Amino acid sequence: MSAMTKGISPFYPGQPVPVDFFVGRQKEIEKIARAVRQVELGKPQAIFLTGEYGIGKSSLSGFMRFYSEKENHLFGIHVFLGGATTIEDIAIKTVEAVLKSPAYEPTVMEKVRNAFSKYIGKQELFGVQLNLDAIKADSPNISHGYIPFLRQLLERIKDEGIKGLMLIFDEVNGITSNPKFAHFIKGLVDENALSANPLPLMLILSGVEERRREMILHHQPVERIFDIVEINPMNEVEMKAFFNKAFQSQNILVNDDAMSLLCHYSAGFPKIMHIVGDATFWADQDGVIDKDDALKGIFLAAEDIGRKFVDQQVLKALRSKDYHSIMEKMGKLPFDLSFKKTDLEKGLSESEKKKCNNFLQRMKKLRVLSSGDVQGEYIFNSRLVRLYILLNAINIHS
Ligand SMILES: Nc1ncnc2c1ncn2[C@@H]1O[C@H](COP(=O)(O)OP(=O)(O)O)[C@@H](O)[C@H]1O
Ligand SMILES: [Mg+2]
After folding, report:
1. Where are the alpha helices (DSSP H) in the chain?
2. Helix axis angle, 291-309 to 383-397, nearest 10°
3. What's the CATH fold of domain 236-308?
4. CB count, 10 Å around CB of 241?
5. How far is the CA of 61 from the centre of ligand 1 (A)?
6. How far is the CA of 364 from the centre of ligand 1 (A)?
7. d(CA 54, ligand 2 centre) in Å
8. In this structure, which ligand is nearest to the CA of 234?
């Protein structure tokens, strides 16, 4: 199978995964599904979905939106708040999300579009053109009457059998620094809970744990609003299911030893799985992923990830003469992901030791390394970045 005859790559680095290629997360799904069922019965719920960058928060949110529409008749609104800084921005992005992220059921979407026709500009052949001026003009009102706004939306689609709403606030990174956001969320939940007739609302916030902490700093009671669902790295079974499903969709087989390599270097990180999978997909020539294909893919992915994740600064540092012996030492240490600073320092000169400290701090800041449980222990966050750094250390030499 040459590149010319290949089908489309079943990998989606940098995008929430389509429902068809979503794998695993059974425990997390069950936990959210239980809350969704409560909402279907009329009881509002709020969940904070946490986990580090690239672990699969947006993908799981997207999947739950699909799931709860199918199983529990909730209408889902997936709002990406990246770039939003004010509550009015939230209102604007909510309207956009309602109109741009269509319900899976077309008749529901038709009703939604009718209800919100004033926010739609010219109807285009493909999708809708939004009337941004109209949305902006209404955004102060919507932000002050957010629950009534949602209620009005639900009223319009009730006839279609819709029982409640799922509102996902995703990518909350920027907005949480605005203290008003914490108050807005708390107000939303309280207002709804205290209403004579609460809106069946499944509220999901998705972000790293630091963002939840930040909200609590701004408004302490936020701590009590949410059930927390934490997403962790995938296990071997989930990773295998993913690679098999993705490759099988293009009639490609994966050998056992190749599979072990793909899983080993992905180390449970969905984001890495997609990058490694994609590179391997293009490396393969004959429809069977063997060890060579997997290694080729892994090296390409290491390059790619290194370039994207390891800041230019570190790259320069790695290539500079100063860090030469530190890197060389690191390359020779027999470790997988975690090492002790004292082991790294053995045999380094005093001035190199000082630079070593600096180097480790820099790597931590860039999230390449994190501190281990034991004092003086460091852990590589990604096996591929570790590989990349080793490859670079070798390159310095040659
Ligand atoms: N359950 C899953 N199955 C398959 N791929 C996934 C899954 N979860 C995440 N991914 C993939 O991993 C990458 C990161 O996922 P994403 O949902 O964007 O993470 P986050 O929102 O936590 O940063 C994306 O390429 C996505 O397609
Ligand atoms: Mg995301």
Report:
1. 26-40, 57-72, 87-100, 106-115, 132-144, 146-157, 179-194, 209-218, 236-248, 256-266, 270-283, 291-309, 312-319, 324-332, 341-345, 350-365, 383-397
2. 90
3. Helicase, Ruva Protein; domain 3 (1.10.8)
4. 14
5. 10
6. 23
7. 7
8. 1
Report CA(269)–ligand 1 centroid distance (Å).
8
- The fold of the 310-397 domain, in CATH, is Arc Repressor Mutant, subunit A (1.10.10)
To test the pocket of ligand 1, the residue of 78, 206, 271 to mutate (highest count of ligand atoms within 8 Å of its CB) is 271
Ligand nearest to the CA of 59: 1
Nearest CA to ligand 1 atom 4: 22
Counting ligands in written order, the one closest to the CA of 64 is 1
DSSP 309-347: HS-HHHHHHHHSGGGHHHHHHHHHS--SSEEEHHHHHTT
pLDDT at 397: 43
Nearest CA to ligand 1 atom 2: 22
Query: pLDDT exceeding 90 applies to what percent of the chain?
Result: 64
Ligand 2: centre distance to CA 18 (Å): 13
**What mean pLDDT is predicted for residues 288-308?**
90
pLDDT at 199 over 80: yes
Residue with tokens 């390891």: 310
Q: Which CATH number fits domain 25-230: 3.30.70.330, 2.60.40.420, 3.60.20.10, 3.40.50.300?
A: 3.40.50.300
pLDDT tens for 49-73 read 999 888 999 999 999 999 999 999 9
Identity of residue 301: A
pLDDT tens for 323-353 read 777 877 777 777 778 899 998 888 788 888 8
Write down the pLDDT at residue 3: 53
Residues with CB under 6 A from ligand 1: 12-17, 21-25, 51, 53-59, 242, 270-271, 274
pTM given for the model: 0.87
Mean pLDDT of the chain: 89
In tens, the pLDDT along 114-159 reads 889 899 887 666 667 889 999 999 999 999 999 999 999 999 999 9
Domain boundaries along the sequence of the chain: 25-230, 236-308, 310-397
CA nearest neighbour of 54 among 9, 10, 15, 25:
15
For residue 53, which ligand has an atom nearest its CA?
1
pLDDT at 162 over 70: yes
Taking the CA of residue 59 as reference, the ligand 1 atom at the shortest distance is 17
14 CA distance to ligand 2 centroid (A)?
A: 9
